[in-house]
Design a protein that fits this description.
FAD/NAD(P)-binding domain, 6 helices, EC 1.8.1.9, 19 strands, 2 domains, single chain, FAD, NADP
């Protein structure tokens, strides 16, 4: 049995691992098929404090992992199929690892950005295709950008990107958008935003170096065209990675885990959540890392006050 198991290895999970390991909690971290989370698909990260020249996303995650390992954190690779939260110690069924038990759990499985599912999209993530305006907008200064989506997030990202881009084309597959009126009005009042509505994205067009356009179909005429662009921002939402929990933890209407305000505590004592799996607002590496610190401190305090195993007798 383990004192604490952390599920997920993005900035939140790795920060929690660093703190718990330094507190001699010997945490076990379960990493899935994409260790490091969304930052592993990001090229240069320029908004994480401490790196004045920026740092590559995979390098940042590798450094955080090494730091956790330095203090005694253990990593295992596997897919968590289910968690029994009905009693402590909590029991996890992990593909490739079997059954694992822990006095406390930290859930840091993140939220996966939704993609369009069109040709050449995934191949060009980090080469002109992005799902995070605040992360990557700076790299498109003076460029023409496309934002795909019709909700509030798309309007917000389009407005934000006008700080850098020479033009932002908002592409949506319907003639009407789902965004609230106030968000649509703000976008329409922005002179840098142009509109390509009732267009269905078909394919990301790219050369060997970068994205050059987005092929779309006009839903009215059926004609296909390529909208030239230097970057494509997909803003159609995120899906929190909580399916494996089987609805045992309280979530909001969109599936994000709910934590007690000012803490990382879920509705089940001994289970904590941090990072994007409980954050549908900020979704930044630094806020994820901060919440990972909170989760580790909350977890440490909980274990000290609610031990179910006499660790002094352990070899």
């Amino acid at each position: 049995m383990h004192k604490a198991i952390i599920i997920g290895t993005g900035p939140a999970g790795l920060t929690a691992a660093i703190y718990l390991a330094r507190a001699n909690m010997n945490p076990l971290i379960i990493e899935g098929p994409e260790p490091g989370g969304q930052l592993t698909t990001t090229t240069e990260v320029e908004n994480f404090p401490g790196f004045p020249e920026g740092i590559m996303g995979p390098d940042l995650m590798a450094n955080m992992r090494k730091q956790a390992e330095r203090f005694g954190a253990e990593f295992r690779t596997g897919w968590v199929n289910s968690v029994d939260t009905s009693k402590r110690p909590f029991t996890l069924q992990v593909e490739g690892q079997g059954e694992l038990q822990a006095e406390a759990l930290i859930i840091s499985t993140g939220a996966s950005a939704k993609y369009l599912g069109i040709a050449n999209e995934r191949e060009n993530v980090g080469r002109g295709v992005s799902t995070c305006a605040t992360c990557d907008g700076f790299f498109f200064r003076g460029k023409k950008i496309i934002v795909v989506g019709g909700g509030d997030s798309a309007m917000e990202e389009a407005n934000f990107l006008t700080r850098f881009a020479s033009e932002v084309v908002l592409v949506h597959r319907r003639a009407e958008m789902r965004a609230s009126k106030i968000m649509q009005d703000r976008a329409r009042e922005n002179s840098k935003i142009t509109w390509a509505l009732d267009r269905t994205p078909l394919e990301v067009v790219a050369n060997d170096m970068a994205v050059t356009g987005l092929k779309v179909r006009n839903n009215q005429t059926g004609e296909e065209e390529v909208i030239e662009t230097n970057g494509i921002f997909v803003a159609i939402g995120h899906t929190p990675n909580t399916k494996f929990l089987g609805g045992q933890l309280e979530t909001d209407e969109t599936g994000y885990l709910i934590v007690k305000p000012g803490t990382s505590e879920t509705n089940i004592p001994g289970i904590f959540a941090c990072g994007d799996v409980q954050d549908n607002k900020y979704r930044q590496a630094i806020t994820a890392a901060g919440s990972g610190c909170m989760a580790a401190l909350d977890c440490e305090k909980f274990i000290e006050g609610h031990a179910v195993h006499d660790w002094s007798q352990s070899v």
